[in-house]
Amino acid sequence: MTAQAQAGGQVSPDMARPEPVVSRFAPSPTGRLHLGHAVSAVRAHDLARAAGGRFLLRIEDIDGSRSRPEHVSAILADLDWLGLDPDGPVVFQSARLPLYADALDRLRDAGLVYPCFCTRAEVAAASLSAPHGAEPLYPGTCRHLSSPDLSRPHSWRIAMARAVAVAGPLGWHDAAAGHVRADPLAQGDVILARKDAPASYHLAVTVDDAAQGISDVVRGQDLFRATDIHRLLQALLGLPTPHYHHHPLLTGADGQRLAKRNGAPTLEAMRLGGGDGRALAADLRAGRLPAGFAPLA
Ligand code: GLU
Questions:
Q1: Active-site positions?
Q2: Which atom of ligand 1 has the smallest separation from the CA of 222?
Q3: Is the pTM of this model over 0.85?
Q4: Kind and range of the H or E element at 193?
């Protein structure tokens, strides 16, 4: 447990930003980037540059079945087109699996994770609704198996109630929201290592943000509550807590969240269509969005 967790886990709202300033853009190469990604990347880049810090690019490709090298190439070309130049070598999560395995081992040794053999369909059928109506909560089917057969395909879930009891009360700092009380219990026994991938997003991102010395995490508002889980994992693994900057999600003029399924144009399409990426980045900095997008709050 960290000193912070032992001291009651409070993070003062005016907690000084960790030094040196290091930000990152961490896309998953499971599709082409769209304008929402550009907003994140510009903000993360500018935050680091304004402080004389470093801006890193991390490719979150642990999901081997959905990640594609051609998406990685497009991401690199898009960032170059936007005029955002990452510092240092590009980091690929697929090359860092032993780090995630180590972290999982430590949680396993502490009795804070358990193997789960449920299929997605079984979980969906037995799930209770999460209080805020988001993801269904895992009903705990495998939580107390006496002699699990680890030769069968399984994921690893965090024993959330136990983990929260061990860590104590926790908080984190968001640039817009100020001090946030972490409530990871509301998300239930989330998966930390999947049947088909050696680490979940939550575990990999927490380990990597610490290993890369990230001081400032810039990402969309959709990941706001995920930070509660990352904060808990930081406390359990003795890792530092960055500052967080969750920005509003870009929506179309109809208020619909931007996603490829809504027909949002990709950065690649704009780039190959002859658009000026640096001018687009400058527009985003000034809060100007192309026609058809609602202004960012
Ligand atoms: N890889 C995640 C995504 O593309 C973002 C991770 C993060 O910024 O924490 O949605």
A1: 260
A2: 10
A3: yes
A4: strand 191-193
272 Cα: distance to centroid of ligand 1 (angstroms): 25
Taking alpha carbons only, the member of 61, 52, 55, 3 closest to residue 30 is 61
Q: Report the pocket of ligand 1 as residue ranges, CB < 6 Å.
A: 26-28, 60, 205, 219, 223
User: Distance between CA atoms of 200 and 198, rounded to whole angstroms?
Assistant: 7
Protein residue with least CA distance to atom 6, ligand 1 = 26
The rounded average pLDDT for each run of 10 residues, N- to C-terminus, in the chain (297 residues) is: 40 62 98 95 98 97 93 98 97 97 97 95 71 70 95 97 98 97 97 92 98 97 97 98 95 72 82 97 92 74
Mutate which of 22, 201, 245 for ligand 1? The one with the most ligand atoms within 8 Å of its CB, which is: 201
Triad 6, 10, 13: Cα angle to 5°: 155
Helices and strands counted in the chain (H then E): 10, 10
Q: Return the structure tokens found at 225.
A: 């509550």
Q: Which two tokens stand for residue 234?
A: 């930081």
| pLDDT tens per residue, range 107-159 | 999 999 999 999 988 887 776 554 544 567 899 999 999 999 999 999 999 99
CATH architecture observed for domain 3-295 = 3-Layer(aba) Sandwich (3.40)
